[in-house]
């Protein structure tokens, strides 16, 4: 499949993140107006809420776009998702009458918001290179992977309230920390604050309580994907995670990109998970390729400085797909809801330059890495971290936009009330 040409000229550039092939879903506002649903096209956002209100866009069961989030469309199911894409494609296609032109707004002039109401949030630990690297640091290469890792997608339930949209500042957290030579813990700002480069799967269709779903059914439930930065306080994590796993170390913030790239836009880029080192149980079998060839990178910009790209990797490096993670999530009978968010786990590749966290890039803080104008082990105040990703087609790309957060200093006294 090649580029679908649009009368919106900026969408036809080979390096445009948002061609007509993409049409990701977001929420925007202008001035004092209320937020409303939009789709990205070239350098613009298309006010699809306005199109529906004007009768230029009609969805079964509608109106579905009269709210400032995509959950109602997501819950309507794959037929409505496909119809939405078909109608908007027809409105924006090269040669179409430009009835949608009054509903375009320059993307640089609007404010973007969280694109959906996050019901619940689960984060996985499903990248083999990341799991091996982290395990090697703490247990040595011979015991790097826990015995269950090659059999089961490991995850933990996080806080939906931690999810913020790209561009939101992230305050360095306080917490309990204890060094290896300390007799007791102390309460202090995190000194080993980190990121995790992830992709987030957004659940559209819910599942029934008590009823597990297959991998194929799970794939059909996924509405789309976002870039996801699972901010992590490594020193807080090291002290708290035994025996139940991450808690406050992962609750500071979870930044997502403002655009949900619908699964349909990624279909041409499907690819298979890697060969299994241990056979998976039958319920985790994939009926077709379930990963995507999505190039990913992380940029670090110190305050007042120049960005350095510190990592480049690919979503195809994952060991477990989002569909497998979602299917496994339901095995207990746990119901999945419209708006659930599943973090992939850190996406690292096989070489140092493809590691998806600073913990790995600095090998636990022991090896400083170079950035423009300095060196880093973990994040310093004022640093801005930016995640980017795109799938490369023939003469076009499916981009996710930027997923950015700047770390601001910890509160001087977190319990002071002025």
N-to-C span? 59 Å
Could you describe the largest sheet, including whether it forms a barrel? 8 strands, mixed
CATH class categorisation of the largest domain: Alpha Beta
Calculate the mean pLDDT score and round it: 97
How many domains? The number is: 2
The number of E-state strands comes to: 27
Into which percentage range does the β-strand content fall?
A: 25-35%
CATH-level-4 superfamily name of the largest domain: Fumarylacetoacetase-like, C-terminal domain
Gross morphology: globular
What is the gyration radius calculated from CA atoms? 21 Å
Using the 3D structure, state the CATH architecture of the largest domain. Alpha-Beta Complex
Helix percentage range: 10-25%
What's the total helix number?
9
Put the structure in a nutshell.
By secondary structure, this protein is of the alpha+beta class.
Keywords:
six-stranded mixed beta sheet, 17% helix, 2 domains, SH3 type barrels, 418 residues, single chain, alpha+beta, Fumarylacetoacetate hydrolase, domain 2, eight-stranded mixed beta sheet, globular, 9 helices
Written account of the structure:
With 418 residues, this protein is an alpha+beta fold. The protein has two domains: 9-113, Fumarylacetoacetase, N-terminal domain (SH3 type barrels), CATH 2.30.30; 121-408, Fumarylacetoacetate hydrolase, domain 2, CATH 3.90.850.10. The protein has nine helices and 27 strands. The strands form seven sheets. Strands 6, 7, 8, 13, 14, 16, 17 and 22 form an eight-stranded mixed sheet that branches. The longest helix has 15 residues, at 78-92. It is globular. The model has no long low-confidence stretch (mean pLDDT 97).
